[in-house]
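re: that complex we talked abt at group meeting.

here r the seqs, copy pasted straight from the sheet so there may be weird spacing, ignore it
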Amino acid sequence: MRTSAENAQLALLLEVTATPKPGNVDRAREYPDLRFEHFMAGAVGASQGLRMAAADDPVGASFERAIEGMADQRGGNTQFGALLLLMPLVRAAGNENGSSSGNGALTPERAAAVVEATTVDDAAAFYRAFEHVDVAVDDPPADMEALDVRRGADAVPAIEERGVTLYELFERSADRDGVAREWVSGFPRTFAAADRIAALDGPVSERAARVFLELLADEPDTHVVTKHGEPTAQEVSEDAQAALDGDLDPETLADDLVERSVNPGTTADLVAAGLFVALERGLDV
Amino acid sequence: MRTSAENAQLALLLEVTATPKPGNVDRAREYPDLRFEHFMAGAVGASQGLRMAAADDPVGASFERAIEGMADQRGGNTQFGALLLLMPLVRAAGNENGSSSGNGALTPERAAAVVEATTVDDAAAFYRAFEHVDVAVDDPPADMEALDVRRGADAVPAIEERGVTLYELFERSADRDGVAREWVSGFPRTFAAADRIAALDGPVSERAARVFLELLADEPDTHVVTKHGEPTAQEVSEDAQAALDGDLDPETLADDLVERSVNPGTTADLVAAGLFVALERGLDV
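got the structure back, here u go
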C-alpha cells in the first residue's frame, strides 16, 4: 500500500541502513561531518520532490525540489546520485495521483522512455540543483567548460543556447559517471540489483549490503575514480571481490575505506535504485 | 523548510537511530523479528496519516491512517505509541496546507486544546487502529471490559453508546499508561524532553539517547510495567540512573535488557515526541 514516492523514500533509508557497505556511511559507520542522521534528514527532505515525480511532474523540476529538501541538514550531499537515479524510475512507476505501486508499470523500457523524453528545461533544473549542495564531479572536457555543472544556475543560459536536453547531457558524461551511464542505457545495473535483492533471503538490509559488494566487485565505482583515481577504484573492486570470496572480512574493508575516506558512492546509489525497483515489484520488508 | 508532517517523520527516524537506548531497537541493536528496517518502513508508512493531521484532519482518522501505513511491514508494532503522541502535536503545529513549521504554534496549551477537542468519532477511529496491529496493553478495569481496546472495531458500538471521547478514554487510563498521561496533562514530559534535546550539544541522535536515559531514570516506563510488572520497571529506572551517574555502562545495560526482552517503549515514544517539538522549534540536524 505504499505509494511509489514512499517506496523511493524507503529505498533511501534501507540503503543507508545496510551494513557493512565498505567506505560509505551506514548503520555502523559514519564520518564526523557526514553522519547517519544526515541521511535520515536527507530522505525526509526529498519526499516532496519524489511525490512530484510520481505525479508526473517534469524530472528536472522534481529532482531540483528533492535536492533542495535533501540539503536541509548539516551533512551536505547525502543522496544526490541516488535521487538522480530514482527520479525517472519513480516517474515511470507512478501515476497521476501518486498512489498504488506494484502496478507493473516499472520496466526498463518505460524508464528509458522517461529519460529520453527529458528536455532542455529538465537540464536547466538539473543545473539549478547544484546551487543547493556541493557534489564531487570531474573537470568537464575542454569544449564543455561552459556547461560545467559546478557553475550551477550560471550555466543555464549556455544550456538553453545550445539546446541540450538532460538526456543528451548524460550521454556526454556516461563514460565517466555511473549514474549517467544508467540513464542512457536502460538502467541495466539497477534492474539487475533489484533482481538480486529479490532473489536473496534474509533481512532486506543484509541483502542490500551483499548486493553492494557484488556491484562494487563487478565494476569500479566512478565516484571513487573521480575522487581518488582509476587505480584506487580498481583496487577497491578487487577488495570487494575478495570479501565476496571470503578472503577479506568486509568489516575490515569497511574500516579501512572509511579511514581513508574512500567512499564508493555511485555503487550505493545503484543499491538505492535497485531497492526501489524491488519494492515496487513487491519486495516485503 | 520541512513541513510539520516531515518533522514528525524525521523525529521517528532519529528516535530509532539514537543509541544506546537500553532495551529498545536502535541503530546498534534489534530483535530477530523486530528489526531496525521495520522502523524505517513504519516511519515511511505513517507519512500520509501525519500529513492528514498537519492538514487539520481529525486526530482519530489521522491516527488510524498512520497506523495502517505503519503496519505495512513484517515487524508488527513499531511506532504505535509514538504516533499517538505525535498526532495532536502535529495538528497543533500544522496548518491547513501542511507547510511551514516553526511558526510558533506548537505550545502545550495548543496541544492540550487539540486533545480536549477530540470526539467520540476520534475514539472510534482509535479503536479501529487496533485492527491493524498487535499492541501490548493491560487488562481493563471490570467496568471497562466492553471498551477493551483489544476488541478493536468490535468495541465501537459500546464507545458510541456511552459517548466516550478519545480524551475521556485516556483520562481513564492515564494512571497506568504514560502516553495517555501526556495527553491529559499538557504533554509535560514531551516538552521537557524537547528543551533538554535543544540544550544539549553534539549529534542529535546522541542527545536523544541521553534524554532517553534521563526520562527513564525519572519515571518507571509504563510499557515495562504492563509487560513485566512494577518491580522490574523500577529496577530498570534505577539502572538508567546508574548509567547516568557513570556507575553502569549503558551499552552493558542495553545488551542486558535486549537479552531479557525488556523494552521501555513508552520512554522511546516520549523521546520521539520530544524530538518533534525540538525540530518544530528550530533544532538543526
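couple things i noticed - DSSP finds 16 helices and no strands in chain B. The interface with chain A takes residues 1-2, 6, 9-10, 13-14, 17, 27-28, 35-38, 40-41, 43-45, 47, 68-69, 72-74, 203-205, 284-285 of chain B (CB under 8 Å).
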